[in-house]
Structure formats: C-alpha cells, structure tokens
C-alpha cells in the first residue's frame, strides 16, 4: 500500500491595512496553487471596510482549501499607545493579544508545516514560538532595501558608542549598510523612527530588529532584477550575520479573489469604460495608497497640477485615513468650480478602486504614487512609468531604489508630502517629465518582462515555493 503524501498546511496571520493584507492573501494564493492547505487567522475587528470585503471574497473563492479563523482582539486604550493612527493602534493591539493565539494554533485539526506572519508581529509571535511547533516565517511587505534597514538597526544600536541606543542619536547623517552601493541618508529614514522619546513604530523596529535572526525565513515581495544587490547582501550575511534565508518570491500577482463584487466597488465599471475611450498610455493614475489621506493644504494644488499637466487623469483622493469614516463630498472640499474643471479633463473619485485593473489598462501610462511597496510592485508588473511622492514610512527608501534602477522618478525636492505645500505648476511639470520620459518607458518595459518571468511558470517564485514545500514534506 502506498503511503499518502503528507499534507502541507500553512497558516497565515496578516496585520492591518490593505498594504499588509493584499500581500498576505497573494502569498497564500501561491501556496494554494501548489496544493497546500491554508489556515487564515484574521485579527478582528478589522480597521477598514476594504479589508473585511477582501477577506470575505478570499474565503468564498477557496471554500474547500482555506479555513478561516477569527482572532478576536482585546481592545486597547489608544491613550496607552501614544498614536492617533488607527492602523498603528491595531498593530499594537495584535501584538498585545498574541497570547490568545496559542489555543487557536493548538486546536488546528492538521498540524502546521509553516506559520507565516506579518513583519509587524515578529517579537510577540516568537515569544510564543514554543507553542507553535513549526517553522516561523515572516511575510515582509516592503522592499529588500527596507528590510536591510530594519535588520541593520540592531547593528547600529549595538555600536552606539554613547550607548544611548536611541535612533535619533545612532542614525547619524546617513546609514551605510554593508553590501549596498548607496547609503540611506538620514532624510530618507521613516520620520517616526527619528523622533525624540518613543512611539509605536520606533519601539516595534527596535524590539524586532535583533529578533529577525530567530526566524526560519523571510518571504520578500521582490525579485533579482529589481533588488539583486539587497537580496544578495541579506542572504550573504553582509547586512547582519545569522539572518535566515530571504526568499525573493515577487512580484506577487493579484488573484481573482480581488475582484470584489460590483456592489462594493461600484465606480469600477464606469472607470473602465472611461479608460476604454482613452488613447494608449495617455492617462495618469494618481493614488496615495489605502491609508494616506491627501492633506487639506495640498489638495487644491494637486487639482491644479492635474488640470495643467496636459494629460487625462484618474485621481483617487482619500479624505480620511480609514474608509469607514469617509463622509464628506469631494465637491464640498474642492469647490464646485474646481470640481467641474477637473471633470472636463479627467476623473476624480474617493472610492476604493481596483488598482490592478487600472494599472493593467493600456490607457494608463503613468502612476503618481506615494511609494507604498505594493503599489510599486504592481506598477512594475504592468510596466507603467512611476513618479513617487513619498508621504511617510518606508516610501523614500523605496523611491530611492526605483530611481537607482531607472524605473521611476522621485520628486526629491518635495520632501515628505506631509511637510510643505507643492504648487500646482510644479506638480504639472513633474507629471509631464514622467509621462514623456522615454528611457523610463524602456526600462519599465524591461522590468515588466523580468517581473513576468520571475512570477511565471518556472520562474524564481515557483522554484522557491516548490522547494520549500518539498522541504516541509520531508520534515513532516
Ligand atoms: N489599493 C487599491 N485601491 C485603492 C487603494 C489601494 O486596490 O483605492 C491597494 C493597492 O493596490 C495596494 C494596497 O492597496 O495593493 C496599498 O498598499 P501600498 O503598499 O501601496 O500602500 P499603503 O496603502 O500600505 O500605504
Ligand atoms: N505613523 C504614525 N503614527 C505612529 C507611527 C507611524 O502616523 O505612531 C505613520 C508614519 O508617519 C508613516 C507610517 O505610519 O506614515 C509608517 O508606516 P510604514 O509605511 O512603515 O508601514 P506600512 O505602510 O507598511 O504599514
């Protein structure tokens, strides 16, 4: 009698926001493609509506292969966390609720081959590792350059001669990570990391950085042609000795499950109709991701820039960080006159859109993005020209990388989008520069081909995932 093949069972735990949920579900769908059983542990309640919609759609797309388990969080008093960002409050809430995971994990009917959790949960999950009984991996949701920064922080803190171990002191003017051609200047470091005192972002990085070596591996939504230097530096022990393997399995592709039904994304059908009527490569798509609101001081100049740039545009504006709180009408904010001028030349919406459907549309030739890593890898996968306007977090580190690889331009003189107001005519000028840049278009086309190869049949993603699955089967 033949021995049945062991079942490979992988559990996933995302943190908060679409920037973390999308790559988690996309990675889970890769494992599903190769026949694995998936358990998805969902922290509840979610912060945004977009997250709950996507989770429902994912589970109903894979009714037999996916088990969904709700992880009911213990609410935290925001005053004890020192943040007014609901997503950061959620990271902290998940971190402090992690002890409640042990009974969930021990009640699973099939033993786990691997547990893959979000980057923002490293130390708390490792603290219950003795109850997980399987290899622990993180799904890293930014660039390999950003992971190198996070990992190297532990080296910098250890070498801090005054032993103050505070980032505002040990970061210096620039960070030269071993194995990297370009240093990371102080001005590109995520701003909360440099603040005096302490905040959740800073505490999380400082606590998690030295613990990365305890993981069994890191899944990275990147690939050789885009970030060969950083992936090599990480894997060759140049950044930090003892780091586990960093698997470049990107760019993660969007799945069918992301076609959330029309009722929830009501504007998509007419946006696509509008795009169908535009010439190839003629439209600029503008979006700052799922959790960055466009500052009130900047919004009118943004509108003026788009009106003046000479291209058609699709502008997705967020007025609130969290979609559940969106109430205001765009016309009330922009004024009737500006709104009607905008509508003569383009489309402006405040709904959550299907970004992949937009980026893959032939009419879209350029993308003005904050530089969130998912947006960047999605645009690279579609060969769209990129202009980055970093607003916070890892976004300058990502922008620098794109510029270095020749696939994007970065309005560096605009600094962080939270700091000054950029005039409309400046914005129009940069958009023209990005849209008409032929060398950018050639490079973007080459990177798209490399991206397709990496995530296609026989590409680096498939090879790595199949190898890991075999390894887990052997160890079962
Ligand atoms: N997104 C989307 N529609 C929107 C806004 C965002 O589909 O209206 C998706 C986008 O495609 C990406 C994610 O949400 O996958 C945002 O992640 P990213 O890393 O780009 O930025 P963040 O929002 O985390 O700052
Ligand atoms: N941030 C914040 N309050 C905090 C900590 C961070 O508003 O207490 C903001 C910060 O300014 C930046 C973002 O959170 O915009 C940093 O998040 P990052 O981009 O690294 O994370 P992700 O988008 O991947 O969740």
Structural class: alpha/beta
Strand order of the largest sheet: 3-2-1-4-5-8-9
Helix percentage range: 40-55%
- Heteromolecules bound: uridine-5'-diphosphate
Gyration radius from CA atoms, angstroms: 22 Å
Strand content: 5-15%
Q: Report the mean per-residue pLDDT as an integer.
A: 94
Query: If helices are DSSP runs of H or I spanning 4 or more residues, what is the number of helices?
Result: 20
Oligomer, anyone? single chain
Quote the distance from N terminus to C terminus. Answer: 19 Å
According to DSSP, the number of beta strands is 15
Largest β sheet strand count, sense and barrel closure:
7 strands, parallel
Shape: globular
Poorly predicted runs are: none
Task: Describe this structure as you would to a colleague.
There is one protein chain. With 476 residues, this protein is α/β, with parallel strands linked by helices. Helices cover 43% and strands 14% of the residues. The strands form three sheets. Strands 3-2-1-4-5-8-9 form a seven-stranded parallel β-sheet. The two termini are 19 Å apart. The mean pLDDT is 94. Bound molecules: uridine-5'-diphosphate (UDP) (2 copies). Residues 17-19, 22, 287, 289-292, 316, 352-355, 372-375, 378 line the site of one uridine-5'-diphosphate.
Give a concise summary:
The chain contains 20 helices and 15 strands. With 476 residues, it is an alpha/beta fold. Strand 4, helix 5 and strand 5 (136-140) form a beta-alpha-beta unit.
């Amino acid at each position: 009698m033949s021995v049945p093949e062991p079942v490979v069972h992988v559990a996933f735990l995302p943190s908060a926001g679409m920037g973390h949920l999308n790559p988690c579900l996309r990675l889970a769908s890769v494992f599903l493609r190769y026949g694995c059983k998936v358990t998805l542990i969902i922290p509840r309640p979610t912060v945004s509506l977009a997250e709950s919609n996507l989770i429902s759609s994912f589970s109903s797309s894979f009714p037999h292969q996916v088990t969904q388990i709700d992880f009911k969080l213990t609410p935290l008093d925001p005053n004890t966390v020192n943040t007014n960002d609901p997503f950061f409050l959620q990271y902290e809430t998940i971190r402090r609720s992690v002890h409640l995971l042990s009974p969930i994990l021990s009640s699973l009917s099939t033993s786990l081959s691997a547990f893959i959790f979000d980057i923002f949960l490293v130390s708390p999950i490792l603290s219950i590792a003795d109850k997980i009984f399987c290899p622990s991996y993180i799904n890293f949701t930014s660039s390999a350059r950003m992971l190198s920064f996070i990992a190297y922080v532990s080296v910098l803190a250890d070498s801090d001669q005054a032993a103050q171990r505070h980032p505002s002191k040990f970061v210096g003017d620039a960070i030269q990570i071993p194995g990297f051609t370009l240093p990371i200047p102080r001005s590109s470091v995520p701003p909360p990391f440099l603040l005096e005192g302490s905040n959740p972002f800073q505490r999380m990085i400082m606590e998690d950085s030295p613990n990365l070596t305890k993981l069994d591996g890191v899944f990275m939504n990147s690939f050789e042609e885009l970030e060969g230097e950083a992936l090599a530096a990480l894997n060759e022990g140049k950044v930090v000795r003892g780091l586990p393997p960093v698997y470049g399995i990107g760019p993660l592709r969007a799945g069918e499950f992301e076609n959330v039904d029309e009722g929830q994304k009501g504007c998509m059908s007419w946006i696509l109709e509008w795009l169908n009527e535009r010439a190839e490569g003629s439209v600029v798509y503008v979006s700052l991701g799922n959790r960055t609101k466009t500052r009130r001081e900047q919004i009118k100049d943004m509108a003026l820039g788009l009106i003046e740039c000479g291209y058609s545009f699709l502008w997705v504006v967020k007025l609130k960080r969290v979609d559940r709180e969106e109430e205001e009408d765009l016309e009330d904010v922009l004024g009737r006159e500006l709104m009607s001028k905008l509508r003569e030349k383009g489309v402006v919406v405040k709904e959550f859109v299907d970004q992949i459907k937009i980026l893959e549309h032939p009419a879209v030739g350029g993308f003005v993005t904050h530089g969130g890593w998912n947006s960047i890898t999605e645009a690279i996968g579609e060969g769209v020209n990129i202009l980055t306007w970093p607003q916070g977090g890892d976004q300058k580190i990502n922008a620098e990388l794109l510029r270095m690889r020749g696939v994007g331009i970065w309005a560096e003189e605009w600094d962080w989008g939270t700091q000054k107001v950029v005039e409309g005519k400046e914005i129009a000028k940069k958009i023209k520069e990005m849209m008409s840049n032929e060398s950018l278009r050639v490079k973007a086309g080459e990177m798209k081909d490399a991206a397709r190869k990496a995530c296609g049949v026989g590409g680096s993603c498939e090879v790595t995932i199949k190898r890991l699955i075999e390894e887990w089967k052997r160890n079962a």
